[in-house]
Structure formats: structure tokens, C-alpha cells
Amino acid sequence: MTDMQDRNVDFRTCPVTTYEVDLAAERLIKANAVAAIVALLLGGIAAILLALTRWEAINLLPPEWFYRLLTAHGIDMLVVFIVFFEIAGLYFGGSVMLNSRLVAPKIGWVAFGMMAFGAVLVNIMVLTDQATVMFTAYEPLGSDVASPLFYLGLILFAVGALVGVGLFFVTIYVAKRDRTWEGSFPLVVFGFVVAGIIAVYTLLSGAVALVPAMAKSLGWIDTLAPAFYRNFFWSFGHPAQQINLAAMVAVWYAITFVALRADPVSEKLSRFAFVLYLLFINLGSVHHLLVDPGLSFGFKVFNTSYAMYLAVLGSMIHAFSIPAAMEVVQRKRGYTNGLFEWFRKLPWREPGFAALAVSMFLFGWIGGVTGVTMGTEQINMVSHNTLRVPGHFHAAVVGGTAIAFMGFTYYLIPLIFRRKLLLVGWAKLQPYVFGFGIMLVSLGMITAGVQGVSRRSADISAAGPASGTVDLSLAVLGIGGLIAFTGLVMFLTIVLSSVFFGPKQEANSLTLIVEPAPVPEHIPADVDLRPRGTFVIVLVFLAFFAAFYLANWWMLGRTWFVG
Fold first, then answer.
1. Fewer CB within 10 Å, N side or C side of the chain?
2. Tens digit of pLDDT at every position of the chain (563 positions)
3. pTM here?
4. DSSP string covering 150-206, please?
5. Residue 99 — left, alpha, or beta (φ > 0 → left; ψ -120 to 50 → alpha)?
6. Are 359 and 248 spatial neighbours (Cβ–Cβ below 8 Å)?
């Protein structure tokens, strides 16, 4: 602390975590978190309107507004909400968790201003029908239709985010130099470091795609090869979700410790899994390019199979490590009867833990399984332009990342905003309500997509008459959308009322409702601490995964008859 004091940095000591919190970093964390909530609100409003349009019985919006709001929804949810929250997470991990000052907070505010201005500019362009080009803005449609200000907004947002990521890395360097913590990075910070490295590659790739597109929209260049744009756009568009993945898993580990005081069973193995993300996760982006000319068959197959499977191995390691950590610490507390007493005694009423559990289930059992399956070249041929793809990423990004971030937000309110969490009764239920709605949305999309419903059409009749069960699938989508929107309103009400009207107070506990029982200092030698229940859950998951994968090959065989 002497070095910090010499630098005239204002700190406060958190009474619960004992972290030394740089007040400048705290203010930036608050600003980025609030901006993320605003983007979530805008994207959520667009989402419910789109869901009620895809529900054929209602068909709410005219086509022009459907495409306009689909563009805004994709950008606000997949980019603006997620990245603002991730920047807040990086500042939290790099400064607060390492007891370090945030380097150059004024530059952090410049970065925040660029991101906020860029996000506002993009939304204005889209909502005033000056950039109805979808999230992807494919060439030549994109630069022929979209205003240059649309691209300027995206570029400003990306540059601001890149500056924020840079501050995170410089802050880590300063923390290491000043020795503000001992030993290796905490695992959560290590996960944020991996997310930050992926972010640098992702944002630079986005610039390579978007800067020429902006130049073409301004008339500075005459042509922009669609294949060039698609290649670099998907070096941005899909890896942007891999930033989410690394940050989400880091949040999973954080919530596991906060809610249960559980440490990974093997921290080295968990770190290795993050390294697998770093080396292989972005290669899965090639599944967006499987029908593109110019890329060899071998390149496509290698990147959507062997390389992607190594990234999936990373996720499988985390999928075992986190529940195993829960089981081991629960068994230490004496919950050793049978395979699953530890599971029944988990703090299901704790809002953060509920969000963690729902997030892991939706991400793994729906988002992960469908993603790996549809990333296979042959299956991708019949699934990629259908609603199966949005069904996958709604489970992965909304069901996985967004719910995990919601759970983390509940802990930030007392720890960073220093406010009392209001509407605790709602908070107990909110992750389950929102998660159940998103599950129905995803399943409705996936089953409709299996029946051939396209992913970007306001009117499904454009592809010909639909089968009888399509209407049922789209009704499930619409009903799920209403339930998920209810859960979203619950979350926004809880957070905004707590942040702006909750009594000011210092945190007095890591958890919000359910305080975990203490772990005995001495565990009897005859207590079985092996995570046997987790092993059974993993076997069941692998069986489900194999059955789903093989079922998709069977359906593919029924599509392409030979003989």
C-alpha cells in the first residue's frame, strides 16, 4: 500500500473481501455496468417485438420494422451489452481483484465515451432506417445501403473497447510490478486475461472488415470483395462470442467461490482449459464460411472439427471442474449421503448461484451441444440458414453469458455500488423465470429450424408452405419470449431500483441470502470427498450429447437419400 499511497490514489478497503478498491476504477466499473444495462433494455425491447412477429399467430411488425429491429437487436445484445459488461469485468479483475490502481483512468473515460457515442450513433442510424443491414452487414448490401455514420459508430465503439482492454493489460503489468498480490494470477483474473487477448484479435479483425466498408460507403473505393469482408467479419463476429465465453467461465468460477466458497479441484487443469480457448476457440468461426468459395475443403474440415474439438475439450474441463468443486466442498460440509445429497443442499435460493446453475445448464445442454453439432460441415449445410442457428446462440449467449452476467451483477450491487439489494424475493426467482423463457425460445427456434424455417425472414411463407408443426414451434418461441421478457423486466427493476434507490451501505457478506455453512478445519479420513455425483452427471451429459449428435446424422441421412 505504500507505493499506492505515494501515487496519491484514493482507495477504500472492502470490509468483506478486504480488497483495496481504487475509487477511480470503481467509478468506471459503475459507468460501464450501467451502460450495459441500458443496452440490455434496448435489446430486450427489440427482442420481445421480434418474438411476437416470428409467432405467426400474432405477426406483430411489418417487414421493414422487423428487419430494422433485428439489426438493432443483434448489435445491442451481441456487441454493446456484452462488451460494456466485459470492460467492467476487466477493470474489476485487473484493478480490484489485484489490489491495484487502475492506470490512466482519464483514458478509461475517453474509451467509455467513444463506446457510448458509437453505440448511440449506431442505434440512431438503424432506427432511422439508415442502416437496415442486419448484424452482419454483408457486402455488397452493407456499404450500398448503410450510412457511413453506421460504420463510424461501430468503429468508435470497437476502438473504445480496444483502449479499455489495453488499460486492463497495463493495469495488470503495474500490479505485477508493484507486487500488489502474491503468487499467480487468481483464476478469475486469468480467465479475464484470456478474454482480453481474444478481444484484441477480435477487435482488430473487425477493423479490417469495417474500415474498408466505411470507405466504400463514402465512395472512397469502388469495390469491396464480399469474400474478403465475410472472412474478416467472422474473424470479429464469432470470436466476439468467444470473448463472452472466456469471461462467462471466469464469472462462473467467481460465483462458485462467492456462493459456496468452493475452489477448483485442480486449478492447473482449469488454467489449461482457458489456454485451449486461447489457441483453438476462434478457429470454429470457419463454420460461417463453409459454403464460401476460395477456402479449401481441408481447411474447412480441419477448423470445424479437429481444432474446434480442442476448444470443446476446454469447455468440457470447465463443465466438470466447477460442479466437482461444488460437490467436494459440500461433502466437506457433511452432505455425503448417496450420490446427490450435496446437489440437493446447494443454495438454490441464492440469486447468484441460481443464475450460475441456469447459465451452465442452458449453455452446456442446449447451446454447447447444438453448437458443436451444427459446426460439423455436413450438418451445417442443412442448418446454417435456418432458425436452428439463432436457437443455438440464444441458448449459448443469452442463456449462458447474459444470465451469468446477471448473477454477477447481483453481487456487484453491494460490493461495488455499495447499495442494498432491493426486491430480494424477486431476485430469488428471476434467474429461473428468465432462464425458462430463454429455454423455450431456443427450443422453439431449433425445432422450427429443423423443419426448414429460415433465420432471417419476417414471413416464413416466402420459402413455401410450412409443415403443420412449425406453427407450434413458433408459438413456443413467442410464449418463451413473453416469459423471458418478464424475467428481464424483473432483473432491470431489481438492479435499477437498487442502484438508484437502495439504501447506501457497505457490504456485510459475500452472499445475498444464503450464507454457506463453514467448512470444518479437520475432515475425518473416512469421509469420501470424490466427486462421484459429478462424474455421473457428466456421463449422462455425454450420453445425451452423443444421442443428439447421432440423431442429427440420422436426420441428414433422411434428407439426402442415396440409391
1. C
2. 444 444 566 888 888 888 889 999 999 999 999 999 999 999 999 999 999 999 988 989 999 999 999 999 999 999 999 999 999 999 999 999 999 999 999 999 999 999 999 999 999 999 999 999 988 888 888 888 899 999 999 999 999 999 999 999 999 999 989 888 888 889 999 999 999 999 998 999 888 999 999 999 999 998 899 888 988 898 888 888 888 899 999 999 999 999 999 999 999 999 999 999 888 877 777 778 887 777 887 877 777 776 677 888 899 999 999 999 999 999 999 999 999 999 999 999 999 999 999 999 999 999 999 988 888 878 888 888 889 999 998 999 999 999 999 999 999 999 999 999 999 999 999 999 999 999 999 999 999 998 888 888 877 776 666 677 888 999 999 999 999 999 999 999 999 999 999 999 988 888 889 888 888 888 888 888 899 999 999 999 999 999 999 999 988 887 766 55
3. 0.93
4. HHHHHHHHHHHHHHHHHHHHHHHHHHHHHT-S-SSPPHHHHHHHHHHHHHHHHHHHH
5. left
6. yes
Backbone torsions φ then ψ of 11, nearest 5 degrees: -125, 155
For the stretch 122-156, what's the b/e string if a residue is b when 16 or more beta carbons lie within 10 angstroms of its beta carbon? bbebbbeebbbbbbbbebeebbeebbbbbbbbbbb
Cell numbers standing for residue 534:
459429478
H or E element, residue 20: strand 20-22
Q: Which residues 6+ apart lie within 8 Å of 112 measured at CB?
A: 28, 31, 32, 35, 87, 160, 164
Answer for the pair 65, 132: CB distance below 8 angstroms, yes or no: no
